[in-house]
Amino acid sequence: MEDTVQIRCARCKNVFRDRARRLRNGYSRQCPSCEIVLFFDNDSPNPNIKRAMQTARSIRKALRENENKFATNAAGTSRSFSGRSGSKTRQNAESDDE
Questions:
Q1: What are the angstrom distances between the C-alpha of 24 and each of 6, 10, 34, 46, 51?
Q2: Is the whole-model pTM more than 0.85?
Q3: Euclidean distance between the first and final Cα of the chain, in Å?
Q4: Where is this region: Disordered (predicted)?
Protein backbone atom coordinates (compact mmCIF):
# COMPACT_ATOMS: atom_id res chain seq x y z
CA MET A 1 0.00 0.00 0.00
CA GLU A 2 1.28 3.40 -0.92
CA ASP A 3 1.61 5.83 1.98
CA THR A 4 2.06 9.08 0.04
CA VAL A 5 -0.43 11.85 -0.72
CA GLN A 6 -0.50 14.13 -3.73
CA ILE A 7 -0.39 17.82 -2.85
CA ARG A 8 -1.10 20.62 -5.30
CA CYS A 9 0.67 23.91 -4.68
CA ALA A 10 -1.61 26.94 -4.29
CA ARG A 11 0.77 29.25 -6.12
CA CYS A 12 2.39 27.36 -9.01
CA LYS A 13 -0.21 24.55 -9.30
CA ASN A 14 2.58 21.97 -9.36
CA VAL A 15 1.77 18.55 -7.87
CA PHE A 16 4.18 16.84 -5.48
CA ARG A 17 4.00 14.03 -2.92
CA ASP A 18 4.52 13.76 0.83
CA ARG A 19 4.02 10.96 3.32
CA ALA A 20 0.56 10.63 4.83
CA ARG A 21 2.01 10.12 8.32
CA ARG A 22 3.57 13.59 8.17
CA LEU A 23 0.46 15.49 7.05
CA ARG A 24 -1.22 16.53 10.29
CA ASN A 25 -2.60 19.76 11.70
CA GLY A 26 0.19 22.33 11.99
CA TYR A 27 2.57 20.65 9.52
CA SER A 28 4.29 22.96 7.02
CA ARG A 29 6.22 22.16 3.88
CA GLN A 30 7.89 24.07 1.07
CA CYS A 31 6.79 23.50 -2.48
CA PRO A 32 9.77 21.94 -4.30
CA SER A 33 9.33 24.11 -7.40
CA CYS A 34 8.33 27.60 -6.21
CA GLU A 35 9.50 27.24 -2.57
CA ILE A 36 6.39 28.82 -1.04
CA VAL A 37 5.62 27.46 2.43
CA LEU A 38 2.35 25.53 2.61
CA PHE A 39 0.67 25.18 6.00
CA PHE A 40 -1.52 22.13 6.49
CA ASP A 41 -4.63 22.59 8.59
CA ASN A 42 -8.03 20.89 8.52
CA ASP A 43 -9.74 24.30 8.53
CA SER A 44 -7.74 25.66 5.60
CA PRO A 45 -9.71 27.67 3.02
CA ASN A 46 -7.59 26.09 0.25
CA PRO A 47 -9.46 23.09 -1.24
CA ASN A 48 -6.18 21.45 -2.31
CA ILE A 49 -4.93 21.43 1.28
CA LYS A 50 -8.28 20.11 2.56
CA ARG A 51 -8.25 17.32 -0.02
CA ALA A 52 -4.68 16.36 0.89
CA MET A 53 -5.54 16.31 4.61
CA GLN A 54 -8.63 14.13 4.03
CA THR A 55 -6.67 11.73 1.83
CA ALA A 56 -3.87 11.53 4.40
CA ARG A 57 -6.37 10.81 7.17
CA SER A 58 -7.95 7.95 5.19
CA ILE A 59 -4.52 6.50 4.28
CA ARG A 60 -3.39 6.64 7.92
CA LYS A 61 -6.59 4.85 8.95
CA ALA A 62 -6.05 2.12 6.33
CA LEU A 63 -2.41 1.72 7.41
CA ARG A 64 -3.46 1.38 11.07
CA GLU A 65 -6.04 -1.25 10.18
CA ASN A 66 -3.50 -3.11 8.08
CA GLU A 67 -0.94 -3.03 10.92
CA ASN A 68 -3.55 -4.25 13.45
CA LYS A 69 -4.61 -7.03 11.09
CA PHE A 70 -0.99 -8.09 10.61
CA ALA A 71 -0.28 -7.94 14.36
CA THR A 72 -3.29 -10.11 15.25
CA ASN A 73 -2.39 -12.65 12.58
CA ALA A 74 1.20 -12.84 13.77
CA ALA A 75 0.23 -13.08 17.45
CA GLY A 76 -2.51 -15.65 16.83
CA THR A 77 -0.31 -18.06 14.93
CA SER A 78 1.73 -20.26 17.21
CA ARG A 79 4.59 -22.44 16.15
CA SER A 80 4.68 -26.02 17.25
CA PHE A 81 7.75 -26.82 19.28
CA SER A 82 9.86 -29.35 17.46
CA GLY A 83 13.16 -29.12 19.32
CA ARG A 84 14.76 -32.25 20.76
CA SER A 85 11.83 -34.52 20.08
CA GLY A 86 14.17 -36.96 18.31
CA SER A 87 16.23 -37.53 21.45
CA LYS A 88 13.32 -39.24 23.20
CA THR A 89 13.04 -41.84 20.48
CA ARG A 90 16.80 -42.40 20.61
CA GLN A 91 16.65 -42.97 24.37
CA ASN A 92 13.78 -45.43 23.94
CA ALA A 93 15.69 -47.29 21.23
CA GLU A 94 18.79 -47.53 23.44
CA SER A 95 16.78 -48.87 26.38
CA ASP A 96 15.19 -51.48 24.11
CA ASP A 97 18.65 -52.66 22.99
CA GLU A 98 19.69 -53.43 26.58
A1: 14, 18, 22, 15, 13
A2: no
A3: 63
A4: 66-98
Instruction: Work out the widest C-alpha separation in the chain, in whole angstroms.
Output: 91
Distance CA 48, CA 10 (A): 7
pLDDT digit string (tens) for the chain, length 98 residues: 688 999 999 899 999 999 999 999 999 999 999 999 999 998 999 999 999 999 999 999 999 998 888 777 666 555 565 556 555 556 665 556 55
- Give me the number of domains the chain comprises: 1
In one-letter notation, the amino acid at residue 23 is L
Q: What is the DSSP secondary structure assignment for residue 21, as one 8-state letter?
A: T
Structural domain of 48? 1-70
